[in-house]
C-alpha cells in the first residue's frame, strides 16, 4: 500500500486543522493517520468538547482520581481502561477559563453535583486536570488565564511546570492575579513573544518581573480598565519602562487615559494600534506628534483620534514608511485635510481604510499612492455613495487589486443594476485591463448583493473582470478595519 511521506501527511493534516469532521474521519484510516490527526485534534483547548474533558478525567493519575472520589465526585468516563493516548500531552494552547467552564458543564450534565457544591467541585476537578496538564505537556505554546469572579489561576497549578512553560510564546492574563503567580512565571518564561494584559484596578507587582526578563517580546496588547486608579496608572507607567526594545507591535485598548509619551522610546515599532472611545484620551498626543518611528509600517486608529492637526503632524514625520493605515470611519472624515495629508505624506501605502466625503479627495489618494493594492471605502451618510466609490475606483485606481465597500448608513445606499454594470464597464475600458477582487461588507442587512446585482457580478466574474467576490458581515475581523 502506498504511504505518503511523513512531512506531506503532516502538512495535509495541518491544512485541515479547523475541519474537525475530516480530522475525526482520519482517525479511522489506520494507526499512523490516527497518531498524526489525534495530536492536532487535541492541540487547542478551545476546540475541546465536554466529552474531551470526560476523557481527560480518565487520564488522571490514581492519586487524583482518589481525591475526586473522596470529595464525592464520581464522573463516568468513555472507558475504564487506560486511554490509548496521553491526550493531555498533546495540548499546546491552554485557556484556564475555557477549561473551567467546560468542566462545570460536565459536572452539570452528570447530574451528580448539587448546585450548592458545584463551584467547589469544579475547583477540585480543575486543579487536578491543570496539574496533569503542567506535568504532561512537554512544551506549552499559549496560556490564557483571566481573573473572572471565582476563576483565578492558582499558583499551585505551576508546581513542576518548568519544562512545560519554558517555551511559552503567548500569554494572556489580567493584572490582578497574584504576585506569586507572576513571580513563578518570571522564573521560567523568558521567550514570550505575544503578551496580552488587562490592567484592572489592582496591578500585581510581579508583572514588572515578568516583563523585564523577556528576551524576545514582539507584540504587547494592553487593555486599560475604566476604573484604573491614579495609583494604578502610576504603576502602569512604571511597567512601560520595562518593555524591551525588541517590541515591534503595540496595541492599546482603553477606557482610561494612556500617557502616549510612554511609547516614544519604542523605536523599533512596526505596528501601532490606538483604540480609545474618547478623543480626550489623546490629550497628550502632542508629545508624540514629533516622535519619529523609523520602522513604523502599520497605523490603526479605529475609534476616536487626535484632534487639531496632531495626527497630520505625526503623519508628516512617519508617513513615508507606512504601508498600511486604518482610520476611524466616522472621525476620519470630519476634516478632509486628514485624507489629503494621508495622500501627501504616505505615498508608499499598500492598504488603506478611510471614509471619504469628496470624490476629488479619492482621486488624489489614487494618484499619490501608486503602490496601493487594497482600499476600503466607507460609504453612505455624508461619505461617497457606493456608485461614486465604484466609478472612481474604475477610473482612477492604478495598481489596486482589491476594493472593499462598507456601508454603515442607509442614506445614499441604493445601487440599481444599471449603475453597477456601468461601473464594471468603465473597468473593462482600462488599458491594460486587470481583474480585481470586490468585497462588500453587510451591516444590518443592508448590502448591494441583491439577486439582480449578483447576476451582473457573476457575469463579470465569467468575463474575468472580477477575480473574486465576497459578501461578508461587519463582525468579520479580516475586513473590519
TrEMBL record:
<dbReference type="GO" id="GO:0031146">
    <property type="term" value="P:SCF-dependent proteasomal ubiquitin-dependent protein catabolic process"/>
</dbReference>
<dbReference type="GO" id="GO:0019005">
    <property type="term" value="C:SCF ubiquitin ligase complex"/>
</dbReference>
<dbReference type="Pfam" id="PF12937">
    <property type="entry name" value="F-box-like"/>
</dbReference>
<feature type="domain" description="F-box">
    <location>
        <begin position="3"/>
        <end position="45"/>
    </location>
</feature>
<dbReference type="InterPro" id="IPR032675">
    <property type="entry name" value="LRR_dom_sf"/>
</dbReference>
<dbReference type="InterPro" id="IPR036047">
    <property type="entry name" value="F-box-like_dom_sf"/>
</dbReference>
<dbReference type="InterPro" id="IPR001810">
    <property type="entry name" value="F-box_dom"/>
</dbReference>
<protein>
    <recommendedName>
        <fullName>F-box domain-containing protein</fullName>
    </recommendedName>
</protein>
